[in-house]
Design a protein that fits this description.
Pfam families: HSP70. Belongs to the heat shock protein 70 family. This protein is an alpha+beta fold. Helix content is 44%, strand content 20%. It contains 18 helices and 22 strands. The strands form 6 sheets. It has a 6-stranded mixed β-sheet with strand order 11-6-7-8-12-15. Strand 6 and strand 7 form a beta hairpin. It starts with 18 loop residues before the first helix and ends with a helix. The structure holds 2-acetamido-2-deoxy-beta-D-glucopyranose (5 copies).
Length: 750
């Protein structure tokens, strides 16, 4: 309980003293500390030592696990991915998630809003979406899950979707209902049993689990339902009950917030109720009848459940990943997302008296990804700050500070024209991605007065998007002025933004790799230990059974070996509990050296009769050939007397060997290593066939000159001979060969 980390989504990219973090900590059973830099440190026991990891590192561990699971399932390396984020995630939280992915060695093609992922998994399969010139199909998506509520309005056309608006309540989900109900039961237990369930983390977690089950039952059943937990605390069993109406009364405040969020999205989208085609619900908590009723109340239609409630987000991400990856071809579907929170940039006064300024570069619901060019006239380096405008669900509205360097006045002492590209990328992260000095050598038509130090906004229109949703870089508009020789010089930018530095990232990545290696080593160690343990049980069980290995070992030997196995078992649970892999492997090898000869005797005993039988049958066939030859069977007319003598002799010799072997083996007790092994019998048979087969299979010569292949075929034995024979047949078309071939099939039937 104290070493199982979860709930990282709500800790990511935040400071320890962040009110949201402080609220979460009251619910989390593991230890969280404030680090020297004020960030969140998760304290866990790892390899018997106390370690403090950041939420980003812990999430990287989870991603590593998911990556591994996917790689096993897909039977291929996984590098590229699309990761979903709540649509209300701010710049820093997104940045933190990208850092986690970097530590896990994943290449993130896109951070994808959960709402947008859901919309994509809805739209891509719809064949009947309106054509581009028609009115769009507007769909509302309501996603209420474990800990948050997200609502989105989305416009669909054939092959594309455009987000219209989103609204969210980041602290409203199933678990908030559970907490309210758990609180109620705590009060009840306090009066009934005089126990404080909150004083024991373990008891409280059990209560939450039971409450969640009860909540699900209440969704389907409006009668009074019971909650029973055995041996809850202080050896007391507890009982209580609740019905749906009670739950709805207790959670009324939460449900009101659901309504507020729904109305907010509707209002922002600018849609009239009759413009809405459907309200699709996903997320476990939308199964709650009260939430369904609020949806009906706000949108005047019953929610539709055509999407998979639990998987639509992951499906949307998988589809987006396939679209963005060059390795896969999928139906194209363009995705235009919108900016959740307006972003403004501001700058200081310039040296020569220009006032400081601010501009809202990305208003709310502005399409993204997007770039804007800002033009400045400066004599010296200057800084640009970016921050959110208005309320965001994050305590710090600042996004970053960028300093554009290396600016000097012109030779005439005038200000230089500097163009700065402000970009919000596919992940929803803002950046000043470039700055350049525009030197106009000669500009007769340029009537922009240099004193008028104003911000020019270029590329105000959304960038055209490629069909698969990939953004085109916002390209600087070409200067329209004629005869103007423009030279553009890249300026260095120094940035101060949230997230790990490259050095830190490298360090954490290395640490993660070490942990992956340690995990692998630990798995190999555990596998070796299990293999030894398994062998001990298996061998001991078989030794004691008369149907298995019992008869194949001398009683006294069995007792000794069984004792050794008992000792080994005890050792495994005592001093041998925690050894390294090699120790277990060596012990296993040692045990096998004793167990395997016994197992081998049993195996020889079991397989031997069939092998002897096959050999005997081969000898009979040899005899038959000799008889047929003597009876002047035309099939063997092409063979000589000498050849047939050789066959006969070999049959006799082999038969003698086999008879001797049989009697010798019959007199060998089961627990004694047989003097003649199956391998020897097989070898003897091969020797026999090497002599006999080429003679018997000798092709009938053609009346004229025999083809060369025949000679080659003669040398061949076994399966190769059969193949050659077939080839020869094809070449020569001699019907008689069919018989020989049949014969041959029997020879090599084993
Ligand atoms: C509701 O729960 C009660 C009590 O457990 C049970 O008897 C009843 O069959 C349930 N009704 C439905 C519709 O599940
Ligand atoms: C959706 O994701 C993008 C990044 O892909 C982000 O910029 C935007 O703010 C998100 N949309 C909403 C409505 O939050
Ligand atoms: C911001 O832009 C700079 C310059 O193009 C680039 O090196 C940097 O990686 C970008 N940062 C982010 C977070 O995209
Ligand atoms: C694409 O760009 C052209 C001209 O640059 C513009 O007329 C058109 O409306 C744009 N299309 C979209 C979908 O933005
Ligand atoms: C031999 O085999 C060939 C092709 O498989 C067949 O056409 C032919 O009739 C067979 N001849 C005899 C004698 O069975």
């Amino acid at each position: 309980m104290r070493n199982t980390v979860y709930g990282l989504k709500r800790l990511l990219g935040r400071k320890y003293r962040d009110p949201q973090v402080q609220k979460e900590l009251q619910l989390l059973p593991f230890a969280v500390v404030e680090t020297a830099t004020g960030s969140v440190g998760i304290k866990v026991n790892y390899l018997n030592e106390e370690h403090v990891f950041s939420p980003e590192q812990c999430l990287a561990m989870l991603l590593t696990k998911l990556k591994d699971t996917s790689a096993v399932a897909l039977q291929t390396q996984v590098n590229d991915c699309v990761i979903s984020v709540p649509s209300y995630f701010t710049n820093n939280e997104r940045k933190a998630l990208l850092d986690s992915a970097a530590i896990a060695g994943l290449n993130v093609l896109r951070l994808f809003n959960e709402t947008t992922a859901t919309a994509l998994s809805y739209g891509i399969y719809k064949q009947d979406l309106p054509a581009p010139e028609e009115k769009p199909r507007n769909v509302i998506f309501v996603d209420c899950g474990h800990s948050s509520l997200q609502v989105a309005a989305c416009a669909f056309h054939k092959g594309k979707l455009r987000m219209l608006a989103t609204a969210a309540d980041p602290h409203l989900g199933g678990r908030d209902i559970d907490l309210i109900l758990a609180d109620q039961f705590c009060k009840d237990f306090q009066t009934k049993y005089r126990i404080d369930a909150r004083s024991s983390a373990r008891a409280f977690i059990r209560l939450l689990t039971e409450v969640e089950k009860l909540k699900k039952q209440m969704s389907a059943n409006s009668t009074t339902l019971h909650l029973n937990i055995e041996c809850f605390m202080e050896d007391k069993d507890v009982h209580s009950e609740m019905k749906r109406a009670d739950m709805e009364a207790l959670c009324d405040g939460l449900f009101q917030r659901v309504e507020i969020t729904l109305r907010q999205c509707l209002e922002q989208s600018g849609l009239a109720l009759e413009d809405i085609h459907a309200v699709e619900v996903v997320g476990g908590s939308t199964r709650i009848p009260a939430i369904k009723q609020i949806i009906e109340k706000v949108f005047h239609r019953s929610p539709s459940t055509t999407l998979n409630q639990d998987e639509s987000v992951s499906r949307g991400c998988a589809l987006q990943c396939a679209m963005l990856s060059p390795a896969v071809r999928v139906r194209e579907f363009s995705v235009t997302d919108v900016q959740g929170y307006p972003i403004a940039v501001s700058w200081d006064a310039s040296g020569d008296g220009e006032a400081p300024g601010e501009i809202e570069v990305f208003p709310v619901n502005h399409a993204i990804p997007f770039s804007k060019m800002l033009t400045f006239y400066r004599r010296e380096p200057f800084s640009i700050r970016a921050s959110y405008v208005g309320n965001v669900p994050y305590p710090d509205r600042n996004i970053g500070i960028w300093t554009v360097k290396d600016i000097r006045p012109t030779a005439e002492g005038k200000a230089q024209k500097v163009k700065v590209k402000v970009r919000i990328n596919l992940h929803g992260i803002m950046n000043i991605s470039s700055a350049s000095l525009i030197e106009s050598k000669e500009s007769p038509d340029n009537d922009v007065p240099e004193e008028q130090q104003k911000i020019n906004e270029n590329s105000e229109q959304p960038q055209n998007e490629t069909a698969n949703g990939q953004p085109e870089e916002g390209e600087e508009k070409k200067e329209k002025k004629k005869k103007q020789i423009v030279k553009s010089v890249e300026l260095p930018i120094e940035s101060l933004t949230f997230g790990f530095s490259q050095v830190e990232l490298n360090q954490y990545t290395e640490q993660e790799f070490k942990m992956i290696a340690a995990d692998r080593q630990e798995k190999e160690r555990a596998d070796a230990r299990n293999a030894l343990e398994e062998y001990v049980y298996e061998l001991r069980g078989k030794l004691s059974s008369d149907d298995e290995l019992g008869p194949f070992v001398l009683d006294s030997d069995r007792e000794t070996l069984t004792r050794q196995l008992d000792d080994m078992e005890n050792w495994l649970y005592e001093e041998g509990e925690d050894c390294n892999r090699q120790v277990y492997q060596d012990k296993l090898t040692e045990l096998k050296s004793k167990g395997e000869p016994i197992q081998l005797r049993r195996l020889e005993h079991d397989l031997r009769p069939a092998i002897i039988e096959e050999f005997a049958r081969a000898l009979q066939l040899g005899n038959k050939v000799v008889e047929q030859f003597r009876a002047k069977d035309p099939k063997y007319a092409h063979l000589t007397e000498d050849e047939m003598k050789k066959v006969e002799q070999t049959v006799v010799q082999s038969y003698k060997w086999l008879e001797e072997a049989r009697s010798q083996l019959a007199s060998t007790p089961k627990h004694v290593q047989p003097s003649i092994t199956i391998a020897q019998i097989r070898q003897e048979r091969t020797n026999f066939e090497n002599v006999v087969t080429p003679i018997v299979n000798k092709p009938v010569p053609k009346p004229e000159s025999p083809p060369k292949e025949t000679k080659e075929a003669e040398k061949e034995v076994g399966d190769n001979a059969e193949q050659n024979q077939q080839q020869t047949n094809q070449n020569q078309e001699q019907p008689q060969q069919n018989c020989t071939q049949d014969e041959k099939m029997e020879w090599s039937s084993t």
